[in-house]
Each structure stands twice: as C-alpha cells, then as structure tokens.
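hey m, so remember when u said the tokens were messed up on ur end? i reran from scratch. heres the input so u can diff it against urs
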Amino acid sequence: MSKLSGIGGRLYRGETSVDFLGKRRRWYSISALFILLSIAALSLQGLHLGIEFKGGSSFTVNKASATIEDARSAVEAIGIPGEIIVQKIGTDKVRVQTAALETAQNNAVQDSLAAKFGVTIESIDTQIVGPSWGKEITRKALYGLVGFLICVMLYLAMAFEPKMSIAAIVAVVHDVFITVGIYALVGFDVTPATVIGFLTILGYSLYDTVVVFDKIRENTRTLAATSKSTYSQATNLAVNQTIVRSFNTSLIALLPVGSILFVGAGLLGAGTLKDLSLALFIGLAVGTYSSVFIAPPVLAQLREKEPEMIALAKRVEARASSNSSVKTVAVASGETRGPRNQPKRKGRK
C-alpha cells in the first residue's frame, strides 16, 4: 500500500485528522488576499476583451519571418486610431487587432501589411466584427453565466439543502472572481474560448464541492440523535475523508490542462489554446481549494447558527464534561488500578 493511500485511510477512519474548520480564518485570509489582488488587477489593467466582444478588425499574416515590431510599425504608419494589439501566433503567423475601421481603413491596413511582408492581399486573413455583434456576444455570455448559476442553485437546493446551495455559490463566485483577476493580471485577451473555460471550471468546482457536501450530509444525518459531535466536527471529518480523493482528481485534471498551457501554448506557440487552457488551469486549482477550504467552513458557519445546532453543541459539550468528570472520579477513587492480589488459601493438612 502506498504512503498516500495509507494517509487517506487514516484520515477516512478518523485516526488522523486535520482541523480544517478550526483554521478557517487562515483560509479566508488567503482568499481575501487573492481577491484584493484581483480587484487591483481589474481596477488598474482591466480585462483585455477580444474583438468578438468589443468589435473591431483582425488581420493575420502568414509568414515565417513576420515579427511583432514590423507588423506594428506597418499599421502605425497609416495612422490608425485607437489601441493596436499585435500577437505572435505560433512560429509563422502574426495577428493585428484594431478597433472598428471603415472600409477604406481596412484596405489601407491590408495594403500596408502586404507591402511590409511581401505577401499578397488575398493571403491575409481578415476578420471584421461590428460593435453590435460584440454587444450581442457579451449579452449572451452573461445570460449563460447567470442561467448556469440559477440552475445550479436550484439543483443543490433540491438535492441537498438551501444552505448548501448558498455555500456552493459562494465558492463558485470566489473561483470566478479570482480567475478573472488573474486573467486581467496576465493580460490575455478574453475570447469566447475564455467564456467556455469559465463555464467549464464552474462545473468542475461544483462537482468537487458536491462530493464533499454529500459526505457531510452522510455524516450529519443522525447527528441530532446521537449527540456525539457538533456540526462543525462532523463537517471537518467529512473534509478529511474526501480530501485525498479531491486532490487526486484535481491533479489528474491539471496534468493535461497544464500540458496544453505550457507545452501547447508556451513551447509550441499555439496561441489559440492559451485563452482556454489558462482559464481551465487557474480555475481547476482555485476550484479545488474552494471546495475544501471555503465551501465547508461557510456551510458550517451557516448551520451552526440554527437553534437546533446550538442545542446540539450544548449537549455535546455537556456530554464531554460528564465523561471527563467520570474519568476524574474514577482515577481519584482508584477504580482504574489493577486487580488486587487475593490472599492465598492454605491447603488442608
């Protein structure tokens, strides 16, 4: 048996325990730090929206010797207004993105790029997205995100309990906010692939959270009747019982996504993969963290405020005090000593 499986077995049986809920302030502080960094990144840099959302023109030149500097100088020489974004795609392509241009300006950009790199105008891949189309895509993306959250909340409320759905949504919002903040800090363009990545990580984060919540429900089903532990103690046991599974599942999911991000987008230069892979990689890591360190403590705090759970905590405390008193009395009276030696009987003569 491996060392990891041995640790997992001891955690599941309760022989070894990590006080996750007792250190909730530490986990909240770590999340607050990342949230503040995300707010700073969004405030100072903001999100770099792709032309699919804000509208504009895109020109892709297919030539091995094409460089970002040459492409930028060719476009700036025309006097195009607004921000000009130039990216290297792979090893033989360069893409230029501008704001919405008129027909004459589009033709001028194509002519300048063709003359700069010695290619034909027909070989330049041109894409024009109007502002109205970009607004429509943005609206649909927001509708999809809000609809997803509503459906998830309804499902969790029916499958588990309302407060579990609240804790799960808190974890999901936590994941999305931090992922968006890191996305703004890195400066990648937000494209439809990014939105797909966000929706994917929401689903994965909820999957991991549902696994933990299912074990919490199992551990707390007869909690009020037995009065052996408080809700927080039963929740902490459930987290210990599922943490190895959560980490193993997340590691297996992060390996292929990391390969796409670092090998595909980084080493091989597949620029079309970086938007999706970065959102997935960050979201999977943050989702695993929230399902273990954020969602269970939030749920326990919500449940511990209920009158039934308050009464349970008092019974558990009274029971623990009673057991402690019994042990103290037993030690004082000598009942815990070993058996006394009985006098030997003399045999008959």
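this time it looks ok to me. The chain has a mean pLDDT of 79. if urs says something different then somethings off w ur setup not the seq
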